[in-house]
Amino acid sequence: MGVNYPALRVLSALSALSLLRGDVLTIGRHNTFFRFCHIRHLTRVFNLNISLDECRDIARERFTDKLFQKLGASRVISIDASDYEGATVIHDMNRNLPDGKITPVDFIYDGGSMEHIFNVPIMLRTVSQTLKIGGIYFGTCPANGEPGHGFYQFSPEFYYRSLRYHGFEVLRLYLSASQYPVRWYRVVDPSDIHCRVTFLSAEPIYCFVLARKVDSKPSGAIAPMQSDYESGNWKLNKDHLAFDHRFRAKVKRLLYRVLVLRLLWSLNVVARHVLLVGAAVWPTSPGISRVNIDADLRSLKDECCTSKAGGHEE
């Protein structure tokens, strides 16, 4: 659990946009996984008011409390199941948070804790309960390529559905390649394009999500439902599992299995490596596009102003 260079880039952009402010809660006591050159570079990119000596001090610290304070936090609170790293609040996130244990905060950062918490629904409920209306949640967890890292890996579909269920609107959702150079891919909501958003990856991929809390009450549904099932397409035989029994459709499926899955698979693998050189994520569906992360995050400013005008803020 911590702040690495990709997460630091997003946090720096949020600070420049004045979206990282007030009381900050970290899920776990987060460690510093970046170097002096990283934070020094980002202070220049985002014109942050952090001096050279302060950058050096931040990079030397084991924990990230000083980093969050310099990025705009007035107070930094950490919650963990154990006190071995000196967390502010000792609480097992697998259990419901007692009322009044944490005063609602303005910003929550989860730098890789959720995949280690077995009872994810309760953890998300706690996140929703401890964040003010209009507050920002920034979470990052494995999406692909690290099956032994924790209990889970999380898909974009999971974040879109579960966060909306708990009263959030997702502002941005990215896939980030973990190896240098860092490459960023923005993922749209599958319900917006009426299609499952799927991908392969050439290296471990992390999901970065930015969400704003807009409702104090979670959805009245029993649990979130995957978007293509929620839309009811399966009732109309329009989902991806609808089976066409016509003779022409059967011949088409047979040819696909023989020609594509059998004969062309090896050529497909070669073509992917040739045509997608330098790509960490290989989209197998619409809804994923490579982006310039700095420019895309800067565009959040206008959207957040629109959200405030629409009444999302208290």
Note the total helix count.
12
Strand order of the largest sheet: 5-4-2-6-7-11-8-9-13
> What's the helical proportion of residues?
25-40%
Largest sheet: 9 strands, mixed
Distance between the termini: 31 Å
- The whole-number mean of residue pLDDT values reads 87
Let me know the CATH homologous superfamily of the largest domain. Vaccinia Virus protein VP39
**CATH topology heading of the largest domain:** Rossmann fold
Q: Encode the helix/strand succession as letters.
A: EHEEHHHEEEHEHEEHEEHHHEEHH
CA radius of gyration: 21 Å
Give the SSE layout.
Elements: E1 2-4, H1 5-16, E2 22-27, E3 31-33, H2 36-45, H3 52-60, H4 65-71, E4 73-80, E5 89-90, E6 105-110, H5 120-129, E7 131-144, H6 156-165, E8 168-177, E9 184-187, H7 190-193, E10 199-201, E11 205-213, H8 227-230, H9 247-263, H10 265-275, E12 281-283, E13 288-290, H11 293-298, H12 300-309
Helix pairs in contact: 1-2
Give a quick rundown of the structure:
The protein has 314 residues and is of the alpha/beta class. It has helices spanning 5-16, 36-45, 52-60, 65-71, 120-129, 156-165, 190-193, 227-230, 247-263, 265-275, 293-298, 300-309; strands at 2-4, 22-27, 31-33, 73-80, 89-90, 105-110, 131-144, 168-177, 184-187, 199-201, 205-213, 281-283, 288-290.
Q: Can you offer a commentary on this structure?
A:
- With 314 residues, the protein is of the alpha/beta class.
- The protein folds into two domains: 258 residues, Vaccinia Virus protein VP39 (Rossmann fold, 3-Layer(aba) Sandwich), CATH 3.40.50.150; 31 residues, no CATH class.
- Helix content is 35%, strand content 24%.
- The strands form three sheets. The protein has a nine-stranded mixed β-sheet with strand order 5-4-2-6-7-11-8-9-13, sandwiched between helices. The chain has a two-stranded parallel sheet with strand order 1-3. It has a two-stranded antiparallel sheet with strand order 10-12.
